[in-house]
Amino acid sequence: MTHTNTPRKYVIANWKMHGDLAHNQALLDRYVSQLSDLKGTQVVVCVPYPYLAQAQAKLQGTGIAWGAQNLAKNEDGPFTGEVSAQMLCDFGSQYVILGHSERATAYCESDENIAQKFMVAKKHGITPILCVGETLIEREAGVMELKVGKQLDAIIDLYGVEVFQNTIVSYEPIWAIGTGLAATPDQAKAMHLFIKGKLMQVNATHENSVKILYGGSVNPQNALQLFMVEHIDGGLVGKCSLNAQEFEGICQAAESCQE
Ligand code: PEP
User: If 250 and its partner were Cys, which of 44, 54, 210, 223 is the partner (CB 3.0–4.6 Å)?
Assistant: First the structure.
């Protein structure tokens, strides 16, 4: 998928390992009734694998897109428990979250593994949502740009900076995820500028086709302030995406700060 006629903002729900058929049904019904008609905001829901069919059935034709939270770096074969890009495509997934720190930490995903998955997603026409971000210790040591730069370089070194065209990068400071302690607009702005600077090495078209989101304790109270910041193209939302009212508040914030 490309970002031609690209929406100005993205709000992406990361349901993580939450939900069941009945709860999802109710939540998706609310998403559809409240969020289908947004003009400048693309809403995306990244669900656990078993619910991709449910997301497809509920969201097809609504303007709300769906996707997954991981994919296999291999195309197919004897990889027990893995799910391939083609399988995601079979269920209409247009997006996939890659490199989320919860996975990187719990399943020892290396930057190189994530880079391979990034390319596999692109090859299959799935927009990767690449998560990057530093720990609190790294921030306190002042090496946050080094850390994020290294995560981006893992992809740039293997495939060149051009592969970031029509992709999404989400700056997710690890200390802000699920903690209720979001980055300040100034902290987010500085990192977004850094990321943009690194990825803008090609040309202006390229710059416009990479969306850079912020993720980490976004809620209806702080969303507008964060989304108004130049270079923040929307948010990746965990906890608040499980509550229809809170998620709507965040999407409305994205919608209301369009130029
Ligand atoms: C996330 O897990 O990507 C995330 C941003 O979570 P939360 O919104 O709960 O901090």
Answer: 223
